[in-house]
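Quality-control log, excerpt.
Job 1 of 2 completed; input and output follow.
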Amino acid sequence: MNRYFLLIFSLLVSIRQLSAQAQTTTLNEVLQLAQLQSVASKQANTQQRTNVWSYRSFQAQFKPQLSLDGSLPNFTRSYVQVTQPDGNIRFEPVSYNNSILNLSLSQTIAPTGGTVFIQKQLQRFDNFIQGSTLYNGIPFGIGLSQPLFQFNQMRWDRKIQPLLFSEGNQQLIESLEQVSLTATNLYFDLLVAQVNLQIAETNRANNDTLYQIALHKLEMGKISQNDLLQLQLSVLNAEKDLASARQTAAVASLKLKTFVGYRNDSNDQVGTGQSRSLELAIPNQIPDLTVDVKRALGEAVANRAGAIGFRRRLLEAERDLEKARKNNGLNATLTAGYGLSNQGPNLIDVYIRPQNREYVSLQFTLPIMTWGRAQALVETARANRELAQQTVEQDKLTFEQEIFTQVTLLHMLNQQVTLTAKADQIGQKRYQIAQDRFKLSDLSVTDLGIATQEKDRARRDAILALRDYWQAFYTLRLLTLYDFETNQKIKY
């Protein structure tokens, strides 16, 4: 009868364990949830849309721009000052409408920084006091506005803006990889807390059982009162550790749920330790990677936003130096135009035998005495360029050092995972032997406590080694934007 009872009990325990395993959440599942619904991933995608539209706005500047401007209506009724031939002043009433419309098509010239345009213009003047109407117009006009000896912002924008766009695209991938790294950290925070909770529950149950056995031994005279009290103290400490472990696991669970976008339900009560915690699977299967440092560095230079930023920052420093030079010297603007124009009392008069319309203008500014201000601005820009070059060189060295350190760390942690897993197995076996020897009165309470501590430390070290490995794995992905497991660039 007892054998059947034990068999049924074993089956129920196995079914419960299989059910718990079926409901466990893996690391990959958590990372997928974080990528899909976390606030951090949504912010990254929103920033990317801003980057795309900003670049489209930049590109639109170099395409033809068609615009219509004017004043319609432009009515005035008032008294105006009129100087008479004898020098006296009279105030005459006026009542008129002076409306104007201008249609223009313009195109920027990036290499020179100028603008060429075509225009049509129509003006109507109504004098309501005299009851007259006049029209003035430009049926056709073409013109050019060309800065001379000035800083050409458009030429530099064509070099820098594409880098900013590429930098923003890679920043999206980096942000999403940072989401994965943060989710991994929170995942293992909860996993470590759950393992500590399992250890606390097991120790509480084992200490309670050993204490009950010790009570029988005391009656038989096989154990001292001091050893019994030590076991009783172990039971109390196990109860205390269990309560603390429950609280830590509940807090870690809520942090992970919040980050990946889980909705907290009414049962999530951290203060009572009754939060519905995610049951996490231990990611024991780690990829067997052999990462070459040179390849990792090459992928980082090709993929990272920071590597693109190195080139952008140097270009910006060169741009600022040229701007300081040209904005503090001779500046001139050439404006020229040709077209047709006419006027008359009727609208059709504007288009009948129009007259030539030409104009040319050269405006310039030449600083003569600036008391060293121009030179100071140029020297400041030159010093800033040198500082940017030095900073970029230092950042490149730090960049390379991070890659080298992370590759070396990943290889070392791969070995640590194997060693700590073996130590965990040995610690569990040793504790089981020590427990059996204590039941047979062949081991002291002190030695049993030492075996328990070593068993728990080995278990924690194994989980912490896994945590360090996966953190290093996803950190290397973040630093290179390359998946060495599948040998392909990371894309989203």
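Job 2 of 2 completed; input and output follow.
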Amino acid sequence: MSIMHATIVGAGVAGLTTALSLAAKGISSDIIEQAPQLGEVGAGLQLSPNATRVLAALGVLAEIERQWLEPRSIRLASGIDLRSLADLPAGDFARNRWRAPYGVLHRSTLQQALLRAALNEPLCKLHLGHRIDGVGADALAHVTGRRPDLVVGADGAWSVARDAVAGAPNVSFSGNIAWRFTVASADAPAFLSRSGVTAHLGPRAHLVSYPLNEIDGFNLVAIAAGARSDESWALQADAARRAMLLEQFSGWHRDIRTVLAGAENPTFWPLYQASEGRWQNGRDTVLIGDAAHAMMPFSAQGAAMAIEDAFSLAHHVSRTALPSALSSFETERKARAARVKARGDFNRFAYHARGPVRIARDLVLSLRSPEKLAADLDWLYGHKIDG
């Protein structure tokens, strides 16, 4: 084993999964989080089989399964007239094809399951309410009382840990805005599927919706391209931002516009993405998750990539000397993240298509069988990481 102890900066999905993955290899960790307590951020979350396979290996999946919903299908539909364009079966189909389930859940369900597992793991120690200005060994040891062999930057798109990695990625506004909100089941219109995930597609925008067991309602995320923002983080949508939302979805089906207009307490999320750059310093510090590769949510893989990163990192550092382990981790995960990003970029082009391109897209989708749609995702959902 190349290391005995790590300090992880950030106690979100990436950080907690890293702590549990390292513990599974006999490596202890301190997890430092600036928030005084871990609350929910956002609302809904999709977990595809490549992520749930890792959570099962860490012993966390069973608790999550008691609360989540497994969609029967993942459907693409027109935002203009609501007609179905393509339908990928999920549920038992996902379990049989990819040997792991596909689930939708409240983000806090995953966060709390990971937190409880970390609190019950003797090799993990959580330090809440500690804001750090740098990730040098001395600064971290001042908080934890122990100098780490490895520092893991799992602190998101606005990572402090990036400062310790020369040539690390930068983040920039993508030109896309997400409006997130929920709708109670009792108030939900008929076009919202009670048993699946649906992405309604339209010119320069799309709307994702799915049911959440935990709130007896639906999670909705409306994403529009070409919007501007002077903000860097999520905030409640005021009247001006609500007007922007309706403008971005002008021309859409009236039932969808009615839901958007009546959204209660929507949050306005400027979407940021990371540039190319180094993920590790060649010695003792590595970036994972959004700190390394923040990407657009067009493949619903943000959380999944962080979970994969964590499990892969633990595998590498438990086998070889640290500099070599960090280098091989970076090479492996960069290739994977680049392919996922490329798929997301393609989805963004297809989802937001206009004019003749939209017509061609709809025709191509109508000709794709469920089997062919699934085969296109085998590389993504069937991905396995050595444990």
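Post-run check on job 2. The radius of gyration is 21 Å.
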